[in-house]
Protein backbone atom coordinates (compact mmCIF):
# COMPACT_ATOMS: atom_id res chain seq x y z
CA UNK A 1 0.00 0.00 0.00
CA UNK A 2 2.84 2.37 0.76
CA UNK A 3 4.35 1.79 -2.67
CA UNK A 4 0.99 2.73 -4.28
CA UNK A 5 0.92 5.93 -2.27
CA UNK A 6 4.49 6.71 -3.27
CA UNK A 7 3.56 6.33 -6.96
CA UNK A 8 0.62 8.70 -6.57
CA UNK A 9 2.83 11.28 -4.84
CA UNK A 10 5.52 10.97 -7.52
CA UNK A 11 2.90 11.28 -10.25
CA UNK A 12 1.37 14.39 -8.69
CA UNK A 13 4.82 15.95 -8.34
CA UNK A 14 5.43 15.21 -12.00
CA UNK A 15 2.13 16.89 -12.89
CA UNK A 16 3.02 19.91 -10.75
CA UNK A 17 6.47 20.10 -12.34
CA UNK A 18 4.96 19.82 -15.84
CA UNK A 19 2.43 22.54 -15.01
CA UNK A 20 5.16 24.80 -13.69
CA UNK A 21 7.22 24.25 -16.84
CA UNK A 22 4.20 25.01 -19.03
CA UNK A 23 3.58 28.22 -17.11
CA UNK A 24 7.23 29.26 -17.52
CA UNK A 25 7.04 28.58 -21.25
CA UNK A 26 3.82 30.62 -21.44
CA UNK A 27 5.42 33.54 -19.61
CA UNK A 28 8.45 33.41 -21.92
CA UNK A 29 6.11 33.35 -24.93
CA UNK A 30 4.27 36.40 -23.60
CA UNK A 31 7.52 38.31 -23.14
CA UNK A 32 8.78 37.31 -26.61
CA UNK A 33 5.49 38.49 -28.14
CA UNK A 34 5.89 41.88 -26.47
CA UNK A 35 9.49 42.21 -27.69
CA UNK A 36 8.48 41.15 -31.22
CA UNK A 37 5.63 43.67 -31.10
CA UNK A 38 8.03 46.50 -30.26
CA UNK A 39 10.36 45.41 -33.06
CA UNK A 40 7.65 45.24 -35.72
CA UNK A 41 5.86 48.42 -34.73
CA UNK A 42 9.20 50.23 -34.38
CA UNK A 43 10.26 49.03 -37.83
CA UNK A 44 6.98 50.12 -39.39
CA UNK A 45 7.15 53.57 -37.78
CA UNK A 46 10.83 54.04 -38.61
CA UNK A 47 10.33 53.10 -42.25
CA UNK A 48 7.03 54.96 -42.56
CA UNK A 49 8.55 58.23 -41.37
CA UNK A 50 11.68 57.96 -43.50
CA UNK A 51 12.23 60.72 -46.00
CA UNK A 52 15.08 62.98 -46.95
CA UNK A 53 15.28 65.98 -49.27
CA UNK A 54 18.47 67.23 -50.91
CA UNK A 55 18.82 70.55 -52.71
CA UNK A 56 20.04 70.40 -56.30
CA UNK A 57 21.74 73.55 -57.67
CA UNK A 58 18.98 75.86 -56.46
CA UNK A 59 16.59 75.77 -53.58
CA UNK A 60 13.66 75.27 -55.97
CA UNK A 61 14.91 72.02 -57.45
CA UNK A 62 15.23 69.24 -54.91
CA UNK A 63 15.66 65.50 -54.86
CA UNK A 64 13.54 63.53 -52.44
CA UNK A 65 13.82 60.00 -51.14
CA UNK A 66 10.77 58.53 -49.40
CA UNK A 67 9.80 54.99 -48.51
CA UNK A 68 6.57 55.38 -50.51
CA UNK A 69 8.57 55.85 -53.73
CA UNK A 70 9.34 52.13 -53.76
CA UNK A 71 6.54 49.53 -53.58
CA UNK A 72 8.78 47.02 -51.78
CA UNK A 73 9.30 49.45 -48.91
CA UNK A 74 5.56 50.18 -48.79
CA UNK A 75 4.90 46.43 -48.60
CA UNK A 76 7.45 46.27 -45.79
CA UNK A 77 5.57 48.91 -43.78
CA UNK A 78 2.21 47.20 -44.36
CA UNK A 79 3.59 43.76 -43.46
CA UNK A 80 5.12 45.07 -40.23
CA UNK A 81 1.90 46.90 -39.35
CA UNK A 82 -0.23 43.78 -39.95
CA UNK A 83 2.11 41.61 -37.85
CA UNK A 84 2.09 44.28 -35.12
CA UNK A 85 -1.71 44.19 -35.06
CA UNK A 86 -1.67 40.41 -34.89
CA UNK A 87 0.85 40.44 -32.04
CA UNK A 88 -1.34 42.86 -30.07
CA UNK A 89 -4.33 40.56 -30.51
CA UNK A 90 -2.32 37.41 -29.75
CA UNK A 91 -1.22 38.82 -26.39
CA UNK A 92 -4.67 38.00 -25.02
CA UNK A 93 -4.32 34.32 -25.91
CA UNK A 94 -0.77 34.30 -24.61
CA UNK A 95 -2.08 35.65 -21.31
CA UNK A 96 -4.73 32.92 -21.22
CA UNK A 97 -1.93 30.36 -21.61
CA UNK A 98 -0.28 31.75 -18.48
CA UNK A 99 -3.48 31.52 -16.44
CA UNK A 100 -4.79 28.20 -17.80
CA UNK A 101 -2.60 25.24 -18.51
CA UNK A 102 -5.14 23.23 -20.56
CA UNK A 103 -5.21 25.36 -23.71
CA UNK A 104 -4.26 22.97 -26.48
CA UNK A 105 -6.66 24.27 -29.17
CA UNK A 106 -5.72 27.91 -28.74
CA UNK A 107 -2.03 27.00 -28.79
CA UNK A 108 -2.50 25.16 -32.10
CA UNK A 109 -4.32 28.22 -33.46
CA UNK A 110 -1.46 30.46 -32.36
CA UNK A 111 1.11 28.19 -34.03
CA UNK A 112 -0.79 28.32 -37.34
CA UNK A 113 -1.25 32.09 -37.18
CA UNK A 114 2.37 32.60 -36.09
CA UNK A 115 3.54 30.66 -39.14
CA UNK A 116 1.36 32.80 -41.43
CA UNK A 117 2.67 36.01 -39.84
CA UNK A 118 6.22 34.70 -40.07
CA UNK A 119 5.76 34.20 -43.81
CA UNK A 120 4.31 37.70 -44.24
CA UNK A 121 7.03 39.36 -42.18
CA UNK A 122 9.80 37.42 -43.92
CA UNK A 123 8.41 38.40 -47.33
CA UNK A 124 8.22 42.06 -46.38
CA UNK A 125 11.67 42.14 -44.81
CA UNK A 126 13.25 40.26 -47.70
CA UNK A 127 11.75 42.51 -50.36
CA UNK A 128 12.91 45.58 -48.47
CA UNK A 129 16.35 44.04 -47.97
CA UNK A 130 16.77 43.77 -51.75
CA UNK A 131 15.99 47.47 -52.16
CA UNK A 132 18.27 48.45 -49.29
CA UNK A 133 21.08 46.43 -50.86
CA UNK A 134 20.60 48.28 -54.15
CA UNK A 135 20.47 51.62 -52.32
CA UNK A 136 23.80 50.88 -50.65
CA UNK A 137 25.63 49.18 -53.53
CA UNK A 138 23.73 50.00 -56.71
CA UNK A 139 23.83 47.82 -59.81
CA UNK A 140 26.26 48.76 -62.58
CA UNK A 141 24.70 46.44 -65.16
CA UNK A 142 21.35 48.21 -64.97
CA UNK A 143 22.76 51.71 -64.40
CA UNK A 144 21.27 51.94 -60.92
CA UNK A 145 23.65 54.05 -58.90
CA UNK A 146 24.01 53.72 -55.17
CA UNK A 147 22.05 56.52 -53.51
CA UNK A 148 23.35 56.13 -49.98
CA UNK A 149 26.29 58.46 -50.56
CA UNK A 150 23.80 61.29 -51.14
CA UNK A 151 20.86 60.19 -48.95
CA UNK A 152 22.80 59.12 -45.89
CA UNK A 153 20.05 59.62 -43.27
CA UNK A 154 17.49 57.83 -45.46
CA UNK A 155 19.71 54.79 -45.81
CA UNK A 156 20.56 54.65 -42.12
CA UNK A 157 16.88 54.68 -41.17
CA UNK A 158 15.79 52.01 -43.65
CA UNK A 159 18.73 49.80 -42.65
CA UNK A 160 17.83 50.16 -38.96
CA UNK A 161 14.22 49.36 -39.76
CA UNK A 162 15.30 46.16 -41.49
CA UNK A 163 17.34 45.07 -38.49
CA UNK A 164 14.32 45.42 -36.21
CA UNK A 165 12.16 43.46 -38.61
CA UNK A 166 14.63 40.59 -38.94
CA UNK A 167 14.93 40.43 -35.14
CA UNK A 168 11.13 40.03 -35.08
CA UNK A 169 11.44 37.19 -37.63
CA UNK A 170 13.82 35.36 -35.30
CA UNK A 171 11.48 35.98 -32.36
CA UNK A 172 8.51 34.56 -34.29
CA UNK A 173 10.55 31.45 -35.07
CA UNK A 174 11.31 31.09 -31.35
CA UNK A 175 7.62 31.56 -30.53
CA UNK A 176 6.66 28.78 -32.93
CA UNK A 177 9.26 26.47 -31.42
CA UNK A 178 8.17 27.28 -27.86
CA UNK A 179 4.52 26.63 -28.69
CA UNK A 180 5.45 23.32 -30.27
CA UNK A 181 7.48 22.35 -27.20
CA UNK A 182 4.60 23.31 -24.91
CA UNK A 183 2.20 21.20 -26.98
CA UNK A 184 4.51 18.20 -27.01
CA UNK A 185 4.92 18.30 -23.23
CA UNK A 186 1.19 17.90 -22.71
CA UNK A 187 0.95 14.47 -24.32
UniProtKB/TrEMBL annotation:
The Casparian strip membrane protein domain, residue ranges: 23-171
Topology term for the membrane: Multi-pass membrane protein
Keywords of the record: Cell membrane, Membrane, Transmembrane, Transmembrane helix
A Pfam short name: CASP_dom
Subunit note: Homodimer and heterodimers.
PANTHER family the record matches: CASP-LIKE PROTEIN (PTHR36488:SF12), CASP-LIKE PROTEIN 1U1 (PTHR36488)
Protein name: CASP-like protein
Annotated source species: Camelina sativa (False flax)
Amino acid sequence: MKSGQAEVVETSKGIQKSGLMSRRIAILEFILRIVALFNTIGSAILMGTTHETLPFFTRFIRFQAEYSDLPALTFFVVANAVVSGYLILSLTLAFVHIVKSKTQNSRILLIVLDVVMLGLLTAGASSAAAIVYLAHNGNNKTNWNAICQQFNSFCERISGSLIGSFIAVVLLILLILLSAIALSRRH
